[in-house]
Amino acid sequence: MLANMRYRGRLCLKYHRPFWKLYLKYRGRLCMKYHRPFWKLYLKYLCAACVISFISMFCVTLSEDLVDWFSSFHTKIDVNRIVQEFQKDKTIYENTTGADEMFKKIRILCLVITTSGHLNKQIPVVNATWGTRCNKILYVMCTDKKQPDILNSCDVKESKSHLTRKVRFMLRYVYLHYLNDYDWILKADDDTYVIMENLRFLLSFHNRDLPGYLGYHFNMHLKQGYMSGGAGYVISRSGLKKVIEGAFKENGCPPDGKDEDLDIGKCLQMAGVPPLVSYDKYGRETFHTDKVWQHFYGTVPQYLKKYSWNGLNDGGGCCSQFSVTFHHVNPQTMLLMHQMLYRTSVYGRQTPTDITDMFHIAKVLPVL
Ligand SMILES: *[C@@H]1O[C@H](CO)[C@@H](O)[C@H](O)[C@H]1NC(C)=O
Ligand SMILES: *[C@@H]1O[C@H](CO)[C@@H](O)[C@H](O)[C@H]1NC(C)=O
């Protein structure tokens, strides 16, 4: 195997035996004229290996996505099979009257920002899980595929640095075609998981005919702050009307850029569309910028501490019982969340549908 490998020094390797056997015993025709101890020979490589593993460990602790990437090598689940199983749903529900009534009363148009590369990955999973609970869903991407639930965005450049233009394009499209058909417009990514029933419950405390928007509230850059893009945000139809008819026509409301959430937040602020309170009466957030366990364990990225308008809580205080979104959810995890939320019940316990004080009917007042 490694017979021709040359090492420094006068170590001649004429061996034909596999590499590992070579070091089993040192007899044989291996002429070792080396004065340095054997291990020193490999010190250089040993050090390099240590440094590389240290750096990768460091990176792994930094990024949950990297952990996902590594774990994807040993946990291969058949996403398509599970999607099909979910479509033949055999879960028994005690009573979905509360959710069914809300579905008719609070109509939500979901806009999922995605790319054609995700047509066979994320999109079928979204479409089989929370997507089914939108009153209408549009997948926004640039593709040749023609389908009623795909909004073709080829007119805007398809790249991360043109996200703002993409979102403006789709909001304008909704304004032109659907303004009166839906009460709220939800913007989500294809790695956002949305619990639509809880979103409707939260929105039942707010008025679609008043300008306003809700999401995970960041306190940076703007006087009224803005909502995290990945956690998803929802704009009242009155708010949509105001921002399209007003701010989108003005200078100062960014026409394009990569920080879609900040840019749209700027436009909404200019248009006089205020952030509404989205945490529950115990101060627990409903929209979340990361996965449920990151919020629960308190292992969210460092920036969030600085960015959070309401402050960070981990453990039991991390998340409302009526949480609405989680972000950075890959297809496997999305299926798992769906399994736990909709296909697992705790026998004999049911939440009432007539809770009237869980959320506040308030605007967030800007910090002066
Ligand atoms: C289901 O719940 C609603 C209230 O949300 C109630 O009015 C109705 O009677 C319940 N139906 C059944 C079959 O329990
Ligand atoms: C989503 O699911 C619906 C209903 O099963 C289907 O008609 C539609 O084509 C799917 N959309 C995409 C983009 O896969």
From TrEMBL:
Gene3D superfamilies in alphabetical order: 3.90.550.50
Biological or metabolic pathway of the protein: Protein modification; protein glycosylation
Matching Pfam families: Fringe (PF02434)
Subcellular location(s) of the protein: Membrane
Keyword line: Glycosyltransferase, Membrane, Nucleotide-binding, Signal-anchor, Transferase, Transmembrane, Transmembrane helix
Domain Fringe-like glycosyltransferase: from-to ranges: 108-273
Single annotated GO MF: glycoprotein-N-acetylgalactosamine 3-beta-galactosyltransferase activity
Location (main, coarse): membrane
Transmembrane parts of this sequence: 42-63
Topology with respect to the bilayer: Single-pass type II membrane protein
A GO CC term assigned to this protein in UniProt: membrane
UniProt keyword Transmembrane, yes or no: yes
Annotated EC: 2.4.1.122
Keyword Transcription: no
InterPro entries associated with the record: C1GALT1/C1GALT1_chp1 (IPR026050), Fringe-like_glycosylTrfase (IPR003378), Nucleotide-diphossugar_trans (IPR029044)
Entries under PANTHER family matching the protein: BETA1,3-GALACTOSYLTRANSFERASE, PUTATIVE-RELATED
Family designation: Belongs to the glycosyltransferase 31 family. Beta3-Gal-T subfamily.
UniProt protein name: N-acetylgalactosaminide beta-1,3-galactosyltransferase
Organism of provenance: Mytilus coruscus
